[in-house]
Automatic annotation (TrEMBL):
Keywords: Membrane, Transferase, Transmembrane, Transmembrane helix
One Pfam family from the record: CDP-OH_P_transf
The species this protein was found in: Glutamicibacter bergerei
Family: Belongs to the CDP-alcohol phosphatidyltransferase class-I family.
Membrane-traversing stretches: 53-70, 143-167, 188-210, 216-237
Protein name, entry field: CDP-alcohol phosphatidyltransferase family protein
Source domain of life: Bacteria
Keyword Repressor: no
Length: 244
């Protein structure tokens, strides 16, 4: 583990050299979340926090945002709080891994904890939307199916992505994520897969008080994510099959 070799600016410079590859990263994650996470990781380093400590703060922010969705009627103030908490939680979710790489303290236990928190978040998010629909709106019950469908798609997508990444690393004989320089995606690709980005969902969930606009955007995102996972599953299966 590194000694406190420098302050915030030193950590920020070091972190810039230890970023994960941008290959496959959607636009929000690539251009907003990772840079924001880098700054939070540098701050966490300055405060002598551990990666698991950052993961815990990330979980607190994220689950607080989800609780607000299910627990309070949609208003612009509630929406602002939801978006802020989810955006901060997502940035901290990036920061814990960056801090681990900076400190040289990455471990299977830390990655396990990070993925477990992410899986709980994935399992709860759209259920909270469903609860909000039921408690605070007079929507036709068919809209409940949109939230349930999104829940299924999100869980399948998360599990498939994590499993493919683990098998890919196993096949290539590495225990760590690939750093930048190990391939990248074009800005156009990053924009094309933006609808699959959790960061975009964080912002959209802040619009639940604007019911017509939210329902339209939410439904379009579901369609985009469904198309993505149908195409991606075939591609990932062919890739994993080639490992044989």
């Amino acid at each position: 583990m590194l000694q406190n070799a420098g302050g915030y600016r030193w950590a920020l410079t070091e972190l810039n050299q230890r970023q994960k590859t941008s290959k496959g990263a959607p636009a929000y994650s690539r251009y907003v979340n990772r840079p924001l996470g880098r700054r939070l990781a540098a701050l966490a380093y300055k405060l002598e926090m551990t990666p698991n400590g950052v993961t815990a703060v990330s979980a607190l922010c994220t689950f607080s945002g989800i609780a607000l969705i299910a627990g309070l009627p949609p208003t612009w103030i509630q929406g602002l709080a939801v978006a802020a908490l989810l955006v901060l939680g997502y940035a901290l979710d990036s920061a814990d891994g960056q801090l681990a790489r900076l400190q040289g303290s990455g471990s299977p236990a830390g990655e396990w904890l990070d993925h477990v928190v992410d899986s709980i978040k994935t399992a709860m998010l759209h259920l909270a939307v469903l609860v909000s629909f039921y408690r605070f709106t007079d929507l036709d019950e068919r809209w409940y199916l949109v939230a349930l469908g999104f829940q299924v798609v999100a869980c399948v997508q998360f599990f498939a992505m994590i499993l493919t990444d683990q098998l890919r690393r196993l096949n290539q004989g590495t225990k760590s994520h690939f750093l930048k320089g190990n391939g990248k995606s074009s800005p156009l690709y990053s924009l094309a897969v933006l609808p699959t980005d959790f960061g975009l969902m964080c912002l959209v969930l802040g619009l639940m008080f604007w019911q017509p606009g939210f329902l339209l955007i939410y439904s379009l995102l579901l369609i985009a994510n469904l198309l993505f996972i149908v195409l991606a599953l075939g591609k990932w299966y062919k890739e994993v099959r080639s490992f044989d």
